[in-house]
Structures are given as structure tokens and as C-alpha cells.
Amino acid sequence: MSRDQRVQDNWAFLYAQRLALKQQLPLHVCFCLVPKFLEATIRHFSFMLKGLQEVAKGAERQNESVESWSLQIEQRGAAVAPRSALEKVGDWGGTQAGAYDWAKTTLKLHAQDKRSHLYELKQLEEGKTHDPLWNAAQLQMVHEGKMHGFLRMYWAKKILEWTRSPEEALKFAIYLNDRYELDGRDPNGYVGCMWSICGIHDQGWAERAVFGKIRYMNYAGCKRKFDVGQFERRYDPRKLGQ
């Protein structure tokens, strides 16, 4: 229930239900509610608790009982994604441990390349860069808790381009994603950041400054994909009171 907070299409739940029926035993759904989890905010907890209420209603319709336990646990520095495809990603704390050797090599080779712009975490968090598209994507995430998948790739790659090192870029991207995305702290989010910054599940591309052989994305490419101007106007910081 921690991974898939739903009754329908929850394969672990359905398997447990099958075992309970086979053994003629009651089935209890337990969720351990902790006071703090990574960068989750009150918005995330509110969203989750409302979802768990729906889970309870769904379980009651199937004559299951739901228990919520409040526990104090030791905080740890890494989140482990229980999927075989993510096993090599390892520590999410801003390292390249899960990257392929070619990606580690190319990022190290270009780590000292001159950046056209450098931003601190606070500037990125507040959407105060020179790039209006990046700012709009960041502000949408802050205000609405979401970002389109295509833009999330562009967003993370620009963090690599505008920070002092790949390690710092990954650390910033994971922090912002976990803190503001409603689906933050999820294996897909971690791998999305790793794909954009460290080339995980990708291949090498033409070598260039800062990125090395990591796939590059730019503003012009985004303009060919969708109406960038309309998106920037919709999330103009002046409209949002930034």
C-alpha cells in the first residue's frame, strides 16, 4: 500500500487477497504514516491522506479493514526504488553512482567546463533564471505540483548546464522534484533526473561542452514541439505574484 495507494489495479493487494482467500484468513491493509518523508510538504501529505481515505472506502466495499499506524522511524539519507530496472541507480542523494561508465567518464571530463550561467538553489527554486521557459516550468511545478514530462527533461538538463557540477545538478534536481511535484519521491522521478543529467537508460550523443556525451536539449528545440510563448505567458511570474 505504500507504493500503490489504491484498491483497484494494485497487484500486491490483489495477490494478498488471493492468498487470504486461499488460506481462509482475514486481510488487513496497513499503512505506516511517518511524520516526515524526504522533502514531502504538507501539500503532499494532504494529497496522500485524502487518497488513503478513498482507499479505506474502497476496501470497506470489499469487506477489508484498513489500519493506519503512526510510527517514529530513524531517518535515512537514501530512498531505494524496489524495481529491477532501477537497482543500479543506488543512492539518490546527489551522486552519479547509478550512471553508466561512459556517462561518468564524460561528465567528469567536462565537469570543469565554463558554464554560461550559474545559479544558486534559491534562484532556481524561485524561477529566477534568464530562461523564461524554464522559469515557467518551475513555477508551474511550485504552484500546481506538476510539470509535463517533456519539460521535466528540459528542466533537469538546464540545471546541469547552470550549476557547478553534475553532482550539484543532480542534488538540486532531486530536491526540487521531491519538494514540489505531487509525484515526487517516486522511482520514476529519480530515474527521470538521472536520465536527464547522467544519461541513465540512454545512449551517448555528440560531445559538447558541459554535457559531454549526455543528450542535449535547447530552447529552439522546445519551440518546434509546442507553443512556448503561450506557456510562458500562462506562467508569467508577474501573473503569479512572484
Briefly say what this structure is:
The chain has 242 residues and is mostly helical. The chain has helices at residues 11-23, 42-61, 101-109, 121-125, 132-144, 149-161, 166-180, 187-198, 219-225, 228-234; strands spanning 28-33, 65-70. It is built from 10 helices and 2 strands.
Reconstruct the topology from this structure.
Layout lengths: L10 H13 L4 E6 L8 H20 L3 E6 L30 H9 L11 H5 L6 H13 L4 H13 L4 H15 L6 H12 L20 H7 L2 H7 L8
Helix pairs in contact: 5-10, 6-7, 6-8, 7-8
Family: Belongs to the DNA photolyase class-2 family.
Protein name: Deoxyribodipyrimidine photo-lyase
EC number: 4.1.99.3
Give a written overview of the molecule:
Its cofactor is FAD. Belongs to the DNA photolyase class-2 family. Pfam families: DNA_photolyase. GO terms for molecular function: deoxyribodipyrimidine photo-lyase activity; DNA binding. This is Deoxyribodipyrimidine photo-lyase. Helix content is 47%, strand content 5%. The chain is mostly helical. It folds into two domains: 1-80, no CATH class; 101-239, DNA Cyclobutane Dipyrimidine Photolyase, subunit A, domain 3 (Orthogonal Bundle). The protein has a two-stranded parallel ribbon with strand order 1-2. The longest helix is centred in the N-terminal third of the chain and has 20 residues, at 42-61. It starts with 10 loop residues before the first helix and ends in an 8-residue tail after the last helix. Mean pLDDT is 85; it is low at 68-94.
